[in-house]
Design brief:
The chain is built from ten helices and twelve strands. It is of the alpha/beta class.
């Protein structure tokens, strides 16, 4: 599909993935004037009226919006994560079909896979068991978009595709301690431990669980490639195909930030899914995607971005304080 002349709605465009996705679309020749990127504040997609309004006159919908977070956030708000993600996706896809949208790109999640799926995860194993309990409500809500996409294709001939990205990381990541994923959470902990000269830092779980990570710019490139070149009914994994244990990950982060202390594992906290690694062959075959950014380089980029962003925010806060409370001479 040629996309440069299409009106494209990108939901979640102001989020971590969304910002990189918009940049990638522009890099592929899409005009900013043809990109519709409303914020959550402008268009709360849990409300069906907003879903109806937002798709009018749109050719392509890339649904990247989502309520998402790490293990702690999933344990705290499973109901919100289920309801918000389900309502946003289901209503938006239905209203897109009714409005005559030519293509719907649903961004799913690796959390949709069964807890003990055979490694590496293949798309055909999506229904072989129940997801890991701490993120099952989120994973199942996103998984229903696959069911809807396939049902709408069968009944209405609606061109909806479903992509399954693994855990993302990179510049612009979410470092909020209440909702961040594992990489930004560990980077922040290691930097704060270094700054405070702490002898040790605490990490949840045993460190034996593994994860696969994909650099966010690689993910954005994959989504655009699929938007242009994939029209199949089957789900497609989007990942690097590489696996790393959390224990190895924290040691790498310690090295990159220069923290010399020890790690204390809090085994009263859950590990989450035991292993995550995707089979990424289908993406390469169907639309030529292969991850490019080496993991350690991607981590360096994220750390450097966070440090510069943190310093910029501190500088802004200091400037505000000095403006509000000027020093008397």
């Amino acid at each position: 599909m040629k996309i440069t002349d299409k009106k494209i709605l990108v939901t979640g465009a102001n989020g971590f993935l969304g910002k990189h996705l918009v940049a990638e679309l522009i890099n592929n020749g899409c005009s900013q004037d043809n990109l519709y990127t409303p914020s959550h504040r402008e268009m709360d997609l849990t409300l069906i009226k907003n879903c109806r309004d937002v798709v009018q006159g749109v050719d392509i919908v890339i649904h990247a919006a989502g309520e998402v977070g790490g293990i702690g956030f999933n344990r705290e708000k499973p109901g919100d994560l289920f309801y918000d993600n389900l309502m946003m996706g289901v209503q938006l896809m239905d209203e897109s079909r009714k409005a005559g949208v030519k293509k719907f790109v649903a961004i799913g999640t690796v959390c949709a896979y069964p807890k003990f799926a055979k490694v590496p995860f293949e798309e055909m194993s999506l229904w072989d068991g129940y997801p890991e309990e701490t993120n099952a409500p989120y994973g199942l809500a996103k998984k229903m978009l696959l069911v809807q996409a396939q049902a709408y294709r069968q009944q209405h001939g609606f061109n909806a595709i479903y992509l399954l990205p693994t855990n993302l990381y990179g510049p612009g990541d979410n470092f909020n301690p209440d909702s961040s994923h594992v990489i930004p959470a560990l980077i922040r902990k290691a930097l704060e431990a270094k700054q405070k000269s702490l002898a040790e830092l605490e990490v949840w779980g045993s460190g034996e669980a593994s994860r696969e990570f994909l650099y966010v710019q690689d993910a954005a490139r994959a989504i655009v490639l699929a938007t242009i070149g994939y029209d199949g009914s089957e789900p497609v994994n989007i990942g690097s195909g590489e696996e790393i244990k959390i224990k190895t990950l924290i040691n790498l982060i310690k090295k990159l930030v220069g923290y010399q202390g020890t790690v204390r594992w809090d085994r009263t906290k859950p590990d989450g899914q035991p292993r995550r690694k995707l089979n990424t062959q289908r993406a390469q075959i169907e639309f030529g995607f292969k991850a490019e950014v080496p993991f350690e380089q991607g981590l360096k980029n994220e750390i450097e971005w966070y440090i510069s962003d943190y310093l910029a925010r501190i500088k802004k806060e200091v400037q505000w304080y000095e403006n509000e409370y000027p020093t008397k001479s």
